[in-house]
Amino acid sequence: MKPFSIKYILAFAQSATRIYLRCLHEPVDMQDDNEFLTVLDYLYGKSLMLQDTGGFNRVLYFYLIDSLAHIDYTAGIYAYNYGSPKNIIGAEYMRWRIDEEKKGDRAKFPGFINWLRENLPAKFAALPSLWQMIYDTEDPASYRSFRIVPDPDSKKPVPAGFFFAIIDEFFEPEFLKSIYEDASLGTLFSSYCAQH
Fold it and tell me: Which pTM was predicted?
């Protein structure tokens, strides 16, 4: 028997999905070129393999992973429906992290970001944009229902280009070097915690 091509298998899977969705009386329009699937693929292609994550400041590492989870969840909501297993699993993590961010020095992180803005503006400006937007008390951006919402007044979806930019910022070598316990951002955060 002749093996099927990938193109044939994908075409069959899409048509089978459309038939299945019709039976469920669901909308049948599936985007063939879902740009948010590309965003997720881009995120999943990144790696911390060359970093010694055990040497990262534990709180900064928590917020790094937390930010990546928010990026993943927000892009996932745009790429898949709310009820998809991927989004359900993501939402469960998001519910868990609400209590986790209140533990120990993690609760001081938002204050630290605002302290940097007021006292060390150059350090603040070098932070990933998502940290600046979400934790700066003067910025309207926030996490709403676990999604990244840069502009609460806008009803438009966040453009895919925004995700590519913020993903790259979190994987910048200079940023990753700075969050080690004994590196610039790591020591600043430790000093901040000792004083607050």
Answer: 0.81
